[in-house]
Structure to design on (253 residues):
């Protein structure tokens, strides 16, 4: 997803996860209301091969249920309350499917889908759903599992993929080249990316989306270093800073 105003993308981490229960429709609606450019969410497969939106492998932390997501059917997952743990006002929020999120999130808002499972079955299911909704140019698929991404990109060359990593790499551009296929974006931990790495990746054609940045001062540093976007739990906070950043750059120019 690209912009014409050169403002770094405001990417809502699991929705507006600092103010609403993560990976729920409520968090995604709030992120859209706050003016995010893209929503980052996590997906895995249920026991009956539905692509569901949930970060953890187990339901325990973010629902009133217990057990592995992959061992539950969609019907079983729908019975769980995914909001009350965050606040009583969000009681009744449910674990959504990716299809439901495509219906909810406007097509003008990008979606960064992080693959939490390494199940090869998700490759065809995910690519088919993205094409059904005509979102090949507004979806980025990321993962720490680079082998799974390689298989996905080989099977579906038109899809955009992003490499997640949490190491202070000596040469991030080499990681891109070693991958051997087109890499749309790089997703480093925000504390482990050097200014020269950002410049080198941008020059090599990659978007740079560091995660997960909630401190305003850290946001300012990354904006000044030229990142393509920032993944944050507080999209409204970043939106204000990103807007003022481009205004200053225009004035300086």
């Amino acid at each position: 997803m690209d912009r014409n105003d050169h403002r770094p993308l405001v990417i809502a981490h699991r929705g507006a996860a600092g103010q609403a229960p993560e990976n729920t429709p409520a968090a995604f609606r709030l992120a859209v209301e706050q003016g995010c450019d893209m929503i980052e969410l996590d997906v895995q497969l249920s026991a009956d091969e539905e692509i569901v939106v949930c970060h953890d492998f187990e339901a325990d932390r973010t629902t009133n249920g217990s057990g592995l997501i992959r061992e539950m059917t969609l019907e079983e997952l729908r019975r769980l309350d995914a909001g009350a743990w965050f606040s009583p006002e969000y009681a009744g929020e449910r674990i959504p499917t990716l299809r439901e999120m495509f219906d909810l999130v406007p097509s003008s808002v990008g979606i960064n889908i992080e693959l939490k499972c390494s199940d090869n079955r998700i490759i065809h299911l995910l690519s088919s759903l993205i094409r059904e909704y005509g979102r090949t140019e507004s979806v980025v698929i990321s993962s720490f599992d680079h082998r799974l991404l390689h298989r996905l990109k080989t099977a579906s060359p038109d899809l955009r993929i992003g490499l997640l990593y949490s190491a202070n790499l000596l040469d991030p551009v080499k990681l891109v080249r070693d991958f051997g296929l087109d890499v749309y974006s790089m997703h480093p931990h925000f504390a482990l990316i050097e200014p020269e790495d950002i410049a080198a990746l941008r020059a090599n054609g990659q978007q740079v989306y560091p995660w997960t940045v909630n401190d305003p001062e850290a946001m300012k540093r990354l904006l000044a270093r030229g990142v393509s976007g920032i993944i944050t739990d507080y999209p409204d906070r970043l939106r204000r800073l990103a807007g003022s950043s481009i205004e200053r750059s225009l004035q300086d120019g």
In short: The chain has nine helices and nine strands. The domain at 9-252 is CATH 3.20.20.190 (TIM Barrel). The longest strand covers residues 38-45. The chain has one domain: 9-252.
